[in-house]
Amino acid sequence: MDGVVLCEIADEVLPESPEDPTEFRFGKRRWVFKDYLIEHQEEILICIEKCQNARTRKLKFRSIRQESGSCILVLCHEQTHVRARDIEMEVGEQILPLFFKDFRGSLEFEVAQQEKEHKRPLKTYVTTKLYDALYEKHRQTINVEQERSLDLPKRFQSQLRKYQQRTVSWMLGREQQITQVPANFIVLHAIDGRSRVLKHKYCLQFYPFEEEIPKISLPPGGILADEMGLGKTVEFLAMLLMNPRPQDSYRNDYWHQRLEEFSDEVPLKRARISKKDEVFCICTKKHGKRVQCTKCHRWQHEICMTISDTSDVPHMCPSCWSELVKSGERLVESGATIIVSPNAIKMQWFEEIHKHISPSLKVLLYFGLHSSFWVSPFDLAQYDVVLTDYTILRNEIYHTTDFKSDRQMRHQQRYMRPNSPLLMVNWWRVCLDEAQMVESNTSAAAEMVRMLPAINRWAVTGTIDELPPLLEFVGRPEVCRPPDAWQTVDKAFQLNYKCEPLLELLEHSLWRTCKSKVEHELGIPPQTEVVHRLELSNVESLYYREEHLKCHEQFLAAVAKHTRHNADNSSCLASISPQLLRIILKPFLRIRQTCSVPVVFNSNVSSTDYLHPQDLLARLKSNNENECKTELRSWASSYNGLAAIYFIKNDFPQAIKYYNLLLKLANEYNEQNISQVHWLPLSTS
Ligand SMILES: [Zn+2]
Ligand SMILES: [Zn+2]
């Protein structure tokens, strides 16, 4: 049977036994309650009925046949990950205290109760509140040790502000200290004196009893979510420099030895080769300087394999690499940090590294297998930092064994399909910059970053919409699974009912500094304001008036459409979810864009062109002209259509009338291509 027996409830009454006044029916059998439940029988009978009527999915009453042959009735919990229904919450709240003597209420029941009472729109925007609470929590737990200033290495060229030092201290702690937190279970002892079960702290989920509940060792890393502009990059680089991987742990003796073994067998031939030695490379080219794989002895192009003259490691082809990594179940150990960012800011990382660290680090820009270059895992592992972006990772997923399609397998391969070397390296650290990019769990990039093997996992982001995907990435799936549990703690926080559970779950994995909290440490000079007033030309003011009107209408329409069903009438911007807010505020985004770069939409001007008022006028004119022409054309085609209908109905005078109107239209507007009059063969008339 799938599921956990929570408590034994009743014994079967054998068919031949005389009627017992306390017996009840369940299924096809007659039952009497166990002694210890006699006093609660009324309540339990109600619960049994409720569960049966509602066809509950998690809490179920069942009869089980025992070894002796007789049956007993039990309450059991099915191991499903569907959400508990409201009725199950209700039943659970009623019945669990009867069955478990040490049951002391549970958060999910309380939250369900609260929700009913408050009836608040749930997706409220409470992120700021969470950040503030978390900031306070961190302030309380920060020890004196961490407050002392950091011993930054000489190579680091920049000064860190006080708050940045606190951030770096926390990050170092997350990488260097082993943190354990208690598991999210509590033990419950059933009233039958026999069963013991584990219950999830925050949801209606039970697990078989275990004598020792292991603590959760938090994986090193976390989510760095300092507010935009506070210098997350420099904080990350300081941490990177201060906690390098111990040299001994990535000497890769195993791989050196393997490669040596292969190259001992056959001397490496780089010289001229005979024609029969076909090239089997990741490209389809025939010519080019070649290099031979030490293991399978097939030939590849030197340029495709990015072989440098200085490399003293024997070459092994991509196929042999993936085969060996798979069979040996061993990765190439590396002290490198791989940083994945949106394409647009990849080079910023590159520049920042050179700016803040001198002598600089060994940095590789990885362009992916789509660029037709293979970088061996061994070479990748030699760098300090490997920079790549989400677009590259998205393509790289097609170079993982799981994604090999049938088509590629059926035909004989003419060229080698390499697997991504990124997955053959055990990185010291992986960092997702602008990690909200992978919040949609299903995207290929998200899939790929989750697969990257790494010891320390970091997500860096200034804006968080959804925490669970990020928590999963940094190795804390237990926080958001089962989803019921996450929702309970999340709601408890949002309803301002109990905030501590959420903060406890997040304190070791999320760090956020807000500008408002550290303003005094920023040392920013006071703001000055200089106003320049510009006179708009007639054309410009016409243009902006129209844009403003459009924006106004679109905004009101969006508000009406998306907030109509909002139960809370006084809903202000702060209570709207960020996703919805983005939709509603879209017209503003557009008018802001048109104000900085006036682009007439639907025209073929690229959005980066600045328009001179003269050009703007010309564009507006041509836009209007096009609109008129479209109208004219539809007018003409209506006449044309009408004429044709009369023609078919043999009402020739009417048909002629409309054809004449059409010709007149064409004449008046001197427009050639509107007068494509129908031509019908004379024989039909
Ligand atoms: Zn090639
Ligand atoms: Zn090979």
UniProtKB/TrEMBL annotation:
Example of a GO MF term: ubiquitin protein ligase activity
Protein name: E3 ubiquitin-protein ligase SHPRH isoform X2
Originating species: Drosophila mauritiana
Stored InterPro entries: ATP-helicase/E3_Ub-Ligase (IPR052583), Helicase_ATP-bd (IPR014001), P-loop_NTPase (IPR027417), SHPRH_helical_1st (IPR048686), SNF2-like_sf (IPR038718), SNF2_N (IPR000330), TPR_rpt (IPR019734), Znf_FYVE_PHD (IPR011011)
Keywords recorded for this protein, A-Z: TPR repeat
Residues annotated as domain Helicase ATP-binding: 156-496
TPR repeat placement: 636-669
Key word Protease present: no
A GO biological process held by the record: protein polyubiquitination
GO cellular component: nucleus
CDD domains associated with the record: DEXQc_SHPRH (cd18070)
